[in-house]
Amino acid sequence: MIIVGAGFAGLAAVAALRKAGTRVTIIDKNLYSSFQPLLYQVATGGLNPGDVSYPVGGFAARRRARYIRGELVAVEPAEQGGEQSIRLADGRVLDFDYLILATGVSANYFGVPGAASRTLGLYTRADALVLRDHLMNGFEQLSTDRARREFAVTVVGGGATGVELAGTLGELRNDVLKATFPDVDPARVHVRLVEMAPALLMPFGPKLREYARRQLEGRGVDVLLGTKIQSVEPDRVVLDSGEELHSDLTVWAAGVAAPDAVGQWGLPQGRGGRILVGSDLRVQGSGRIFAAGDIALNPGDPSPQLAQPALQEGRHAAEQILALARGEETRPFSYHDKGIMATIGRRSAVVELPRGPRFSGTLAWLAWLGLHLAYLLGMRNRVSTLINLSWRYIAWGHGGGVIVGDEPSEPLPSESPPSEPLPSRSGAGEDPVSDTA
Q1: Which residues are catalytic?
Q2: Closest to 318 (Cα-Cα) out of 5, 8, 10
Q3: Cα–Cα distance between 331 and 81 in angstroms, integer?
Q4: Domain enclosing residue 321, as ranges
Q5: Alpha carbons 435 and 433: distance in angstroms, whole number
Q6: What would the pLDDT profile of 358-395 be if each residue is shown by its tens digit?
Q7: How many CA atoms lie within 13 A of 271 on its CB side?
Q8: 162-172 pLDDT, tens digit each
Q9: 251: part of which helix (H) or strand (E)?
Q10: Contact 330, 282 (CB under 8 A)
């Protein structure tokens, strides 16, 4: 059995097969699995990248599985009734009895000109480090270049990732700059959030959406709702109304789609390029290939693109494979909604339970923090994250709370020649929309 992708769904499938006695191989192009709900904390200098990363090989070994570093490029058809196989980018061919595809998704630019080549994403650990370095470099340039009027950051997308990033950037400007970059006037740092929908955090109730908007604006974030991006230019974003807004750094958090490579696998695809599956998560037209997590789409009953559905789908796909191996019928997947939550910043979050209370503020923030610590892999990561986040919020404005990086190793998208766009960055798991309870 082969599992491709070491995100939430892939690791959940490996764990579900721990005692099944099957030969399991997990494949991922990275040596580590990233906890995506906290990548924005890495990007804003609150956590070290190692705090949100866990070695895939160690996870696999403790569950009697094998880890292979590689990237899937093709799913080969079976020859004369034999085993099917997959081909990796390095030319290796691996046979399988059953396959689970859990590769996750990447950014969806919705055809906006310049978005793919002139914005940064926040889907992988590498994305977070690039964004952190450019943010800190922008702050540093303000402190040394008095002629520079401002450093403007535009976050596109009012989902949980966009809200969390914009809220933390607002706090950085208001409370941390004066300690870390004392020569920078916070008024010279402009943070805006652009959302096409009429409200932020659309899966939440109206009161929680309004609370999130007020909290962002209270942190000095310019929130533009019902606003569509027409194009992204080297130093600005152009709105559908024709208005042009200066933007030194544009972060795209507006949606997800399947990576382009999925189109080469020869599997049926639906909206956003996601792989079409049946009710039991088997790929349509296939008897031995499953898909789970954000890459999977059941048109008749789509699951939210969150961490909890990915975890549950990974486990379900593994259980159906074991059922098939025993000669039993598969069962349809049914998502058990445990609720959703998102944080806006220090002592500010929103929580919505499926059949319970909806609450916000400090209590919701503590619940968000506790849940994310519980879901992190590895005790060292939990302890390190707790220490770093505690220090960040205790030390706001007192000379601490920021983990700085290096000089950016690549230019901003706005500084790259139009003929040489930055390579796209795709993640290995859902943007879990930070996150389900």
Answers
A1: 164
A2: 10
A3: 26
A4: 2-29+70-107+257-325
A5: 5
A6: 999 999 999 999 999 988 888 988 999 988 888 877 76
A7: 8
A8: 999 999 999 88
A9: strand 249-252
A10: yes
